[in-house]
Amino acid sequence: MNGRPGGRGRRLVLWRHGQTAWNVERRFQGTTDIELTGTGVAQARRSARLLAALRPDVIVSSDLDRARTTAAELAAVTGLTVTHHSELRETYAGAWQGLTHEEIAERYGEQYAAWKRGEPVRRGGGELETEVADRAAPVVLSHADKLPDGGTLVVVSHGGTIRTTIGRLLGLESRSWESLGGLSNCCWSVLGEGARGWRLLEHNAGTLPEPVLGDDD
Length: 217
Known about the structure:
Layout: E1 11-16, H1 21-25, H2 38-51, E2 58-62, H3 65-78, E3 82-85, H4 101-107, H5 109-116, H6 129-144, E4 152-157, H7 159-169, E5 188-194, E6 197-205
Parallel strand pairs: 1-4, 2-3, 2-4
Antiparallel strand pairs: 1-5, 5-6
Organism: Streptomyces hesseae
Protein name: Histidine phosphatase family protein
Pfam families: His_Phos_1
C-alpha cells in the first residue's frame, strides 16, 4: 500500500470537513449525518480557495452531508465534479454516537479507558480502526492510480478516517496510528509520492504547503 517503486510524483490531500454543532459540543458523530454550522461553511469556503491553488485533478468525498458540503466548495471554485463514496465515511461508533466524551466515560467507562490507552476497541460496538482503513484506503489508492504523473487528488473525509488511511498508506503498524494526531476542522494533510513510496509532507495544515529546502528532501 506504500506507493509504487520509482514514484510518479503524485500528491494526496486529505481534507477534513468543516465544523458541525456536534464538534462544538464534543459529541461523537461517527456515521450520523450532521450538517455544517455557518462557521463550518465559512471554513470550507476559505480552505477551498487555498486548495484550489494546488490545481487538483480529482476530488472524492465521503457521502455524509458535512463532507459533501465541504467538497462542494472546492468543486465550485475548480469546476471539478465530486465523486462520493460511502467507504470514506467516519468510523461507525455504535452506541457512542450522539454522546459526549463525558457521557461515554460515565456509561462505558472500561471501554472508554481502553480506547484512551490505545487498545483496539469496537467503540460502542462499532468498527475497529483497521476496518476503517480496510474500506477507505483502497478507494483513495484506486483514484490515486488514475492520476497523471504529478497529479493531485483531494479526499474530503473525517478525522478518524483520514488518520487511519494515512497510517495504512505510510505502512505504519496500527498501534502507531494514534501518534499522527487529529485534524482540526477544515485542515488537511498532504502525502507526496517519492522513489520509496508515500511520505507525509504536511499534517493538520491550514495553509498551503511550502517546499522542503535542505538535506531532508
